[in-house]
Write a structure and sequence with these properties.
The protein has about 90 residues and is α+β, with helices and mostly antiparallel strands. The chain is built from three helices and three strands, in the order βαββαα.
């Protein structure tokens, strides 16, 4: 079941008490400089409606659907990312 979130752009003028009031009613997304953060009550159940058997069924159905060539291509991408690094050059 997909959850929709309210997105709020965080600026210098954004008031924290109002954000917490919004988050108490339903999870919200905060956006700052292009980065999204999820804000929700600590007692929200992140796995509400999660069906582990459905996940296992999906894994069984899709297991083996990637061929050997595609697997090697994906591994090469991961290896290249590890060597090149994944952080932007301007980030320490």
């Amino acid at each position: 079941m997909a959850t929709t979130h309210k997105t709020i752009r965080v600026t210098e003028e954004t008031g924290l008490p109002e954000l917490l009031d919004d988050a108490a009613r339903a999870p919200i997304l905060l956006e700052r400089d292009g980065t999204l953060f999820r804000l929700s009550r600590a007692d929200d159940d992140l796995f509400a409606g999660h069906d582990p058997e459905r996940v296992r069924d999906g894994l069984r159905r899709f297991a083996g659907t990637i061929g050997a060539e595609e697997g090697e291509r994906l591994k090469a991408i991961v290896d290249r990312g590890r060597e090149d690094g994944t952080r932007p050059p301007d980030r320490p």
